[in-house]
Write a structure and sequence with these properties.
By secondary structure, the protein is mainly α. The protein contains five helices and no strands.
Length: about 130
């Protein structure tokens, strides 16, 4: 029972991390110091997708599921939980590269807007 609970907790943390990688810049807009955590997370997310690596959280979750008497799953977190909802069958390296680029583009746009806003605020403060 505890092993399954831990596996489910890892799943929730993993999903939250993926959301943080993709949309964390929205949180940085509110709490700018969070960028020190978000930017490395984006780099990690991009690297995992671009290289085809598996996130260690996937291995941890599978290990706990096996300990709970469940069967682990093949492939990575995205392929197992999200791919069937977001993408058709037949994930290719091209799809993975597109997902990696999506992360970079989304965050690049959001950070560019944040930098413009921060510069504008500093200029307004300097005028006052």
């Amino acid at each position: 029972m505890l092993a399954r609970w831990i596996a489910d907790l890892i799943l929730v943390v993993h999903a939250a991390f993926v959301l943080f990688v993709v949309f964390g810049a929205l949180l940085v807009a509110r709490w700018p110091r969070l960028a020190w955590l978000h930017l490395p997370a984006v780099a990690w997310g991009f690297t995992v997708e671009a290289t085809g690596w598996f996130c260690p959280l996937t291995d941890f979750e599978n290990a706990w599921r096996r300990q709970a008497g469940e069967q682990g799953y093949e492939g990575g977190f995205l392929e197992h939980y999200l791919l069937s909802m977001l993408y058709p069958e037949g994930l290719t390296r091209t799809h993975q590269w597109l997902m990696a680029l999506f992360v970079v583009v989304v965050n690049g746009v959001l950070y560019a807007r944040l930098v413009r806003r921060w510069r504008r605020e500093r200029q307004e403060e300097a005028v006052v």
